[in-house]
């Protein structure tokens, strides 16, 4: 039995005691449905694929993408590029465009580095701002190579040695200045570039080689069709370069080609679906992963709307000749203002509609998997509609919203798990951005307000009834949920012509009563609101709230209402800060005994995925804190994956330890800083178990820590810290910060 097994076995004998001190709801990302406009590389020192999308750092654990929580988030950029610097052992992110509200894209020229633990901005002055450039790393010369620029329409060639940028001026250069792709050719020791677009927007089929001094146009016997927006990745095992996709001549391509050092060889024609903005990289075994992207379509509605729908699937290309193998399915493409409800009869999260006219299909999430359903009737592409689940009849009810240019709807739809049915009923006037929930005590759906409206309606499955015309003032985008313990509908905030509102109201089935708590959240609208049956509190998350200048901005905070008082704010998922209007939805999952929160993740100004978060007092958490203790190196501790029962991929990583040195992991139930002198602190109060590992030449060590599939582990907490031998350190060893781990859902 190795040391890791000893550590795991020792901790498995500890009496697991669930924590009772945590009262606030904490969150972790449960699933992200799609990744568009992403970038990817392979970290050869840690044997990990690394991807960035919408400010999220993702790592491939062998079976799925895991979001890596870093102290400094990855930059959120469009058209950025990612390469791995095997000399300095860092993932490099360069260029692209950051989205600035109202102003639009701002092109950037900064270099960010990811060491496997955190992102940092490199201080070196960089080339002028650029996006849609080509980028590759030359491991022989230890140089990052950058060519071209979309925003500059320039054929500049730049190189970076990890410290200094050099602009090179070869006598000739490729004419495809932007949206070309390039990769390092291990056979010839040169960087190969193919395709791109010239200044006249002509798509090209040229192959060029860069040796560090000169660009040489090659004349292979076989030439792939012209293209831009394609992907290329180096296979160091067999010395080939894989090229996939792109577009040219009005055709979005799905073909694959391989460069063998002298010629292009056609690969499989069947593989990932047509897409832009995907990412691709090859690992040290010669296997290539392709992630995400988006496809562009016309809505088909009048007037026609040009749309981009994001993808979240992952594909494997095992080596020369393929074939492409789909590893993970895609989830629901991103949609603004999607409708969501939890079906407690079938234990399914149902989402439908949304403002994206061609991807408003019905999807369900259950047992950790998204499934697209194909009913004969789909909801129209509604913006500002609402949906809830009728627990007494076992159907999901959707009402209202608008399509097209503010064409408000009075329509009522019902979903029984198989079929959507449009009910022909007299009821509320056409409206959008109203509040809606299900009243379990009165067994009816409650609808309040909407744009310029302040009336209350109820629906019992047979007929709509106007229940009140007094109560909260007319408003739209208010937050509303049902408190089952007190049999009250709770409403907060919203917006009217004067701005955001911050009042609290309750509906008892007959009349509205305004509540006047001593403390309230700041006025806000479009917040998510859900009732947590586990705590008996209504939880308010996010929303748009006016700042000191009077402008409305999204807030990443949560509040709780216990029927008498508001408490908060506490932290909410940071993604809610970038959410668009009408995009936050929260429900309670009876089976998980937790809240589910749907938020959009953004890349620049465009939605890239619909993220699903889980919130609970017993949510799984792995947090790194403390200062550590440096010597000749400053090792860092980080975690991989979520500590949930049954997660066999959970592990601890140490980066930046001494090369080829011993690393010792220690674990205990308690924590507390014990000063050791020299600015060092030990955070383990009586380590119960230890395990040893040897760092590789890049100073990386990892400790697998699979979590047994035992629900009794939920609530178990431990503290882990690592030490690395280092004669240059004050104590003869360096210490990492510590990780606080709580096994949860």
Short description:
The protein is mostly beta strands.
Structure notes:
This protein has 745 residues and is an all-beta fold. 1% of the residues lie in helices and 47% in strands. It has one helix and 66 strands. The strands form 19 sheets. The protein has a five-stranded antiparallel beta sheet with strand order 57-66-65-60-63. A four-stranded antiparallel beta sheet has the order 1-56-55-54, with no helix packed on it. A four-stranded antiparallel beta sheet has the order 2-3-4-5, with no helix packed on it. The longest helix is centred in the first third of the chain and has 10 residues. The radius of gyration is 27 Å and the shape is globular. 53% of the residues are buried.
- % residues in beta strands: over 45%
Rg measurement, Å:
27 Å
Rounded mean pLDDT is: 89
Q: Overall 3D geometry?
A: globular
The end-to-end distance, rounded to whole angstroms, is 29 Å
As laid out across the biggest beta sheet, the strand order is: 57-66-65-60-63
Would you identify the regions where 5 or more consecutive residues have pLDDT less than 50? 1-6, 10-22, 302-306
Supply the number of helical segments. 1
Helix content estimate: under 10%
What keywords describe this structure?
single chain; 745 residues; mainly beta; 5-stranded antiparallel beta sheet; disordered N terminus
Chart the SSEs and their pairings.
Elements: H1 3-12, E1 26-32, E2 39-43, E3 48-53, E4 56-60, E5 65-68, E6 81-85, E7 90-94, E8 97-100, E9 104-107, E10 111-114, E11 119-121, E12 134-138, E13 143-147, E14 157-160, E15 165-168, E16 181-185, E17 190-194, E18 207-210, E19 215-218, E20 231-235, E21 240-244, E22 247-248, E23 251-252, E24 256-259, E25 264-266, E26 279-282, E27 288-298, E28 306-317, E29 325-328, E30 339-343, E31 348-352, E32 363-366, E33 369-372, E34 386-390, E35 395-399, E36 402-403, E37 407-408, E38 412-415, E39 420-423, E40 435-439, E41 444-450, E42 453-459, E43 464-468, E44 479-483, E45 488-496, E46 499-507, E47 512-515, E48 528-532, E49 537-541, E50 544-546, E51 552-554, E52 557-561, E53 566-571, E54 585-589, E55 594-603, E56 606-616, E57 621-625, E58 636-640, E59 651-655, E60 662-668, E61 671-677, E62 680-684, E63 689-694, E64 701-704, E65 717-725, E66 733-742
Antiparallel strand pairs: 1-56, 2-3, 3-4, 4-5, 6-7, 7-10, 8-9, 10-11, 12-13, 13-14, 14-15, 16-17, 17-18, 18-19, 20-21, 21-24, 22-23, 24-25, 26-27, 27-28, 28-29, 30-31, 31-32, 32-33, 34-35, 35-38, 36-37, 38-39, 40-41, 41-42, 42-43, 44-45, 45-46, 46-47, 48-49, 49-52, 50-51, 52-53, 54-55, 55-56, ...
């Amino acid at each position: 039995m190795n040391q890791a097994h000893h550590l795991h076995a020792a901790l498995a004998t500890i009496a697991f005691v669930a924590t009772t001190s945590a009262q606030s709801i904490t969150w972790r990302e449960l699933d992200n449905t799609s990744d568009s406009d992403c970038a990817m590389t392979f970290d050869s020192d840690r044997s990990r694929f690394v991807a960035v999308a919408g400010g999220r750092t993702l790592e491939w654990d062998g079976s799925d993408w895991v979001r890596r929580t870093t102290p400094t988030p990855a930059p959120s950029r469009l058209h950025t590029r990612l390469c791995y610097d095997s000399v300095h052992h860092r993932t490099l992110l360069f260029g692209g465009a950051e989205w600035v509200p109202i102003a639009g894209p701002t092109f950037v020229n900064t270099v960010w580095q990811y060491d496997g633990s955190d992102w940092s901005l490199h201080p070196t002055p960089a080339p002028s701002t650029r996006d849609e450039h080509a980028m590759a790393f030359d491991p022989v010369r230890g140089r990052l190579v950058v060519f071209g620029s979309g925003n500059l329409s320039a054929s500049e060639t730049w190189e970076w040695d990890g410290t200094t940028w050099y602009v090179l001026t070869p006598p000739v250069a490729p004419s495809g200045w932007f949206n070309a792709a390039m990769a390092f050719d291990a056979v010839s020791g040169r960087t190969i570039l193919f395709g791109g677009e010239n200044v006249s927007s002509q798509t090209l089929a040229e192959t060029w080689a860069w040796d560090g001094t000169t660009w040489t146009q090659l004349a292979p016997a076989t030439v792939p069709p012209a293209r831009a927006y394609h992907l290329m990745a180096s296979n160091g095992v067999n010395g080939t370069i894989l090229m996939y996709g792109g577009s040219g001549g009005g055709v979005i391509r799905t073909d694959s080609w391989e460069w063998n050092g002298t010629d292009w060889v056609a690969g499989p024609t069947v593989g990932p679906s047509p897409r832009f903005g995907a990412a691709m990289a090859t690992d040290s075994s010669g296997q290539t992963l392709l992630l995400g992207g988006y496809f562009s379509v016309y809505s088909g509605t009048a007037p026609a709307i040009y749309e981009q729908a994001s993808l979240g699937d992952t594909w494997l290309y095992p080596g020369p000749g393929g074939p492409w193998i789909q590893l993970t399915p895609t989830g629901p493409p991103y949609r603004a203002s999607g409708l969501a409800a939890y079906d407690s009869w079938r234990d399914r999260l149902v989402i439908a509609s949304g403002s994206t006219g061609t991807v408003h299909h019905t999807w369900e999430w259950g047992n950790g998997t998204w499934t697209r359903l194909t009913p004969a009737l789909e909801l129209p592409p509604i913006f500002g509609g609402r949906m809830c689940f009728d627990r007494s009849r076992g159907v999901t009810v959707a009402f209202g919203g608008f399509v097209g240019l503010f064409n408000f709807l009075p329509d009522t739809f019902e979903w029984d798990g198989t079929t959507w049915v449009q009910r022909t009923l007299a009821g509320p006037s056409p409206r959008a951005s109203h509040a809606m929930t299900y009243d379990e005590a009165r067994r009816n759906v409650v609808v309040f307000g909407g744009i310029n409206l302040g009336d209350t309606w109820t629906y019992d499955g047979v007929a709509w009834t106007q229940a009140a015309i007094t109560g909260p003032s007319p408003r739209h985008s208010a937050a509303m949920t049902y408190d089952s313990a007190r049999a009250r509908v709770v409403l907060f905030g919203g917006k009217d012509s004067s701005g955001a509102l911050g009042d609290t109201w309750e509906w008892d089935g007959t009349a509205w009563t305004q509540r006047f708590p001593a403390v309230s959240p700041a006025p806000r609208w479009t917040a998510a609101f859900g009732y947590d049956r586990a705590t008996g509190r209504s939880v308010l998350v996010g929303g748009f709230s006016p700042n000191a200048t009077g402008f409305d901005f999204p807030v990443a905070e949560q509040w709780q209402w216990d029927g008498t008082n508001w408490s908060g704010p506490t932290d909410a998922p940071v993604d809610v800060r970038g959410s668009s209007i009408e995009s936050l939805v929260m429900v309670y999952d009876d089976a998980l005994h937790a809240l589910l929160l749907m938020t959009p993740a953004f890349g620049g100004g465009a939605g890239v995925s619909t993220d699903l978060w889980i919130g609970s007092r017993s949510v799984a958490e792995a947090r790194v804190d403390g200062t550590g203790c440096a010597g000749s190196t400053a090792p860092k501790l980080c975690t991989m994956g979520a500590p949930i029962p049954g997660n066999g991929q959970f592990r601890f990583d140490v980066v930046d330890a001494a090369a080829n040195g011993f690393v010792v992991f220690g674990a205990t139930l308690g924590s507390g800083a014990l000063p050791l002198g020299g600015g060092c602190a030990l955070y383990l109060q009586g380590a119960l178990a230890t395990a040893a590992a040897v760092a590789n030449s890049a100073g990386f060590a990892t400790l697998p820590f699979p979590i047994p599939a035992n629900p009794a582990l939920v609530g178990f907490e431990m503290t882990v810290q690592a030490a690395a031998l280092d004669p240059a350190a004050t104590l003869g060893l360096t210490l990492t910060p510590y990780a606080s781990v709580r096994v949860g859902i």
